[in-house]
Amino acid sequence: MTPTTLRLDRPREGVVVLTLDRPDRLNAMTATMFAELEETARALDREDGLRAVVVTGAGRAFCAGYDLADAAELPTLGALGMLDLQERAARALVAVRGMRLPVIAAVNGAAAGGGLALALAADIRLGAPTARFNAAFVTIGLSAGDLGTSWLLPRLVGPAVAAELVFTGRTVESAEAERTGLVNRVVPAEELLDAALDLAGQIAANSPGGVMLSKRALQANAEIPSYAAALELENRGQALLTRTEDMAEALAAMRERRPPTFVGD
User: Fold this and answer.
1) Residues 79 and 172 grouped into a single domain
2) pLDDT value, residue 86
3) Same structural domain for residues 110 and 200?
4) Conformation bin of residue 168: beta by default, left when phi > 0, alpha when psi is -120 to 50
5) What's the number of domains the chain is made of?
6) Which pLDDT band, with edges at 50, 70 and 90, does 233 fall under?
7) What is d(CA 119, CA 218) in angstroms, rounded to the nearest whole number?
8) Residue 96 and residue 123 in contact, taking contact as beta carbons nearer than 8 Å
9) Rounded average pLDDT over 186-199
10) What's the whole-number mean pLDDT along residues 115-137?
11) Same domain, 179 and 87
């Protein structure tokens, strides 16, 4: 089905822009959006020829978190009903983070609560000067243990900074986000999407298999408990990639002093 809360655009070959498209509600999340986000992310992950995904928000916000109009009904749900909704939301974020393709978040405005979690689920974050981040769960009686925030945030900014942000619920403006590593860099608002697309283009120019296994190694080795285990995973990935056409093409291109043409085999 055609999504009602999301929009897909294909401005460049091999690159898709996924836009949260509820600007009148600051792209706030709903049960429908979670379902559509999961379905769309999984469909894109299966798409041949796709090399990178840019996630952004329509209008002046990236994503304001869960829609308060729906949140008012949460206390009326039974325990299992609430668990079902929470797991539905988590599956959507897992689908985004678990894509084989690199995901770039172009954060154009507020990224609060679940919106922060979505930005954290991306591999790379670019922010406009208007970007601001808020883990305000405690201000509405909830925990920052939500949609992966408590796992991903400390890995980006460190445990002490993460603790301050989630215990206070304060807003992080773009300059602090860049300084602490919450975003890779801040670019002018009018250049944000182009910067994200340029970055996606640089990724798309590389070996698809090499990028895919690089992402897998980075994610898996964030959870592997030892250096030896990390090396074992890396060794298997490199051995596999030397069997692909892309490796042979890259070496031939270097010898012939021309750009390589990767096929992703």
Assistant:
1) yes
2) 87
3) yes
4) alpha
5) 2
6) confident
7) 17
8) no
9) 98
10) 96
11) yes
Q: Which residue range is the domain that position 43 belongs to?
A: 6-204
- From 20, 222, 197, select the one nearest 112 (Cα to Cα): 20
Judge if 177 and 237 occupy the same domain. no
Same domain? For 149 and 225 the reply is no
pTM tops 0.85: yes
Q: Is residue 262 part of a domain?
A: no
pLDDT(265) > 60: no
Closest to 44 measured CA to CA, from 57, 53, 34, 33 = 53
The answer to whether residue 265 is domain-embedded is: no
Reduce the DSSP state of residue 185 to 3 states and report it. strand
53 band by pLDDT with thresholds 50, 70 and 90:
very high
Q: Do residues 226 and 177 both lie within one domain?
A: no
Confidence of residue 253 (pLDDT cuts 50, 70, 90): confident
Could you tell me the end-to-end alpha-carbon distance of the chain, in angstroms, rounded to an integer? 30
Per-residue tokens: 182: 């919450």
Q: Per residue in 208-223, pLDDT tens? A: 999 999 999 999 999 9
> 112, 142, 106, 148: which is closest to 127 by C-alpha?
106
Q: Where are the alpha helices (DSSP H) in the chain?
A: 31-45, 68-71, 79-97, 114-121, 149-157, 159-168, 174-180, 192-204, 208-221, 227-241, 245-256
Predicted confidence at residue 1, as pLDDT, reads 67
Indicate the DSSP class of residue 73: T
